């Protein structure tokens, strides 16, 4: 993101912070929240660590919402993370009915359950799931795996139409469809381009998609707690000439058993390749590749100030590597990661994360990493 101007972005973020910390407290109809987190990612093996963005990384955000009238809300989110300082979202939300609402501007696109939990204070592990990783992934460079299926948060320019319907006293359906500029790239997706100005469409062909979530509310104190099941889909053309397509879909589920929360998600993407490009390391039998994976995790409290989490996940890429790809990358590359972690909450709104990760890969060998971070929310 060399074309971003840090000084201007910093001024924008400072304005958002000032609004949230100052006038937001005094003005009626203003809601604000935020979080800050610093994570250290370390490798036991230097050979593997030199191929990843290990070390300290920040993750901070401030959300500001302003009620314009009974039906219209302005909202924005300023963030600081590995991709820089930016206004991540800025939109108007028109909510005349429970079952029909419209959000427009630069919006957070709803895909998967994890899109609701992208801030570090909302998940227990030190890292995001591989299928949704945003820059803290071993061998996640463009010349290797090129991150996961769809790095989150996915923010884009466009409009979202959504609503909620109650199907009885305990069953609720959330649904939404959207039209956005779409993902960008030339030969495979360019995730850094999604965070770089200008934010307008690169090919004048909008992309679209939707998400639906069915939620069930349990009786208070019931062993079988709340549950939700969701599905997501998006499709579009990503290159400047609008000749190459991508298609992404996923399913997810969250269940509660007593105090234990169990989650799982699967996501897959098919991406067209440039048949005219030269330098593919293998014969281009199919002019596309597939990337898919899943994770399953369980989290449980171990007392008033301590909770534990375990996550198992897989990520697989099938298809010819791109021209210039790492020599180790094959036509069928797979990653498996086991993560165990503890979260300590020594004080209200303050948390410490400790995680250990065991990586097993078909192309890059096996290695171990760890995360240690501290953060807070308001």
Features:
378 residues, 2 helices
| Average residue pLDDT | 90
Q: Describe the sheet with the most strands.
A: 16 strands, antiparallel, barrel
**In terms of per-residue confidence, which ranges show pLDDT below 50 for 5 or more consecutive residues?**
1-26
Structural class: mainly beta
Query: Using DSSP, what is the number of strands?
Result: 16
Biggest sheet, strands in spatial order? 1-2-3-4-5-6-7-8-9-10-11-12-13-14-15-16
- The shape is globular
Give the radius of gyration.
21 Å
Helix content estimate: under 10%
How much strand content do the residues show? over 45%
Q: H/E element string? A: HEHEEEEEEEEEEEEEEE
Distance between the termini: 30 Å
Contiguous helical run count? 2
């Amino acid at each position: 993101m060399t074309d971003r101007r840090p000084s201007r972005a910093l001024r924008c973020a400072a304005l958002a912070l000032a609004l949230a910390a100052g006038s937001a407290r005094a003005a009626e109809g203003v809601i604000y929240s935020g979080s800050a987190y610093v994570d250290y990612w370390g490798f036991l093996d230097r050979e593997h660590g030199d191929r990843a963005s290990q070390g300290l990384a920040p993750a901070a955000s401030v959300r500001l919402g302003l009620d314009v009238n009974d039906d219209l809300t302005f909202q924005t989110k300023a963030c600081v993370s590995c991709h820089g300082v930016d206004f991540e979202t800025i939109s108007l939300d028109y909510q005349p009915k429970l079952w029909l609402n419209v959000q427009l501007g630069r919006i957070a696109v709803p895909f998967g359950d994890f899109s609701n939990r992208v801030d570090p204070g909302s998940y227990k592990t030190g890292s995001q799931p591989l299928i949704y990783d945003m820059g803290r992934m071993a061998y996640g460079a463009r010349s290797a795996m090129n991150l996961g299926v769809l790095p989150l948060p996915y923010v884009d320019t466009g409009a979202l139409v959504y609503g909620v319907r109650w199907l009885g006293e305990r069953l609720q359906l959330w649904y939404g469809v959207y039209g956005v500029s779409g993902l960008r790239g030339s030969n495979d997706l360019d995730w850094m381009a999604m965070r770089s100005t200008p934010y307008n469409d690169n090919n004048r062909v909008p992309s679209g998609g939707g998400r639906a979530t069915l939620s069930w509310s349990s009786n208070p104190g019931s062993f079988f707690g709340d549950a939700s099941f969701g599905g997501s889909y998006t499709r579009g053309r990503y290159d400047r000439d609008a000749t190459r397509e991508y298609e992404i879909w996923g399913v997810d589920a969250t269940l509660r058993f007593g105090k234990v929360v169990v989650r799982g998600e699967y996501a897959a993407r098919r991406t067209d390749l440039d048949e005219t490009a030269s330098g593919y390391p293998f014969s281009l039998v199919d002019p596309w590749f597939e990337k898919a994976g899943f994770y399953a995790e369980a989290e449980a409290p171990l007392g008033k100030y301590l909770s534990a989490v375990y996550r198992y996940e897989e990520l697989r890429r099938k298809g010819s590597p791109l021209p210039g790809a790492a020599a180790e990358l094959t036509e069928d590359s797979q990653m498996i990661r086991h993560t165990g972690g503890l979260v300590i909450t020594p004080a209200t709104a303050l948390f410490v994360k400790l995680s250990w990760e065991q990586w097993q890969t078909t192309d890059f060998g096996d290695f171990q990493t760890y995360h240690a971070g501290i953060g807070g929310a308001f």
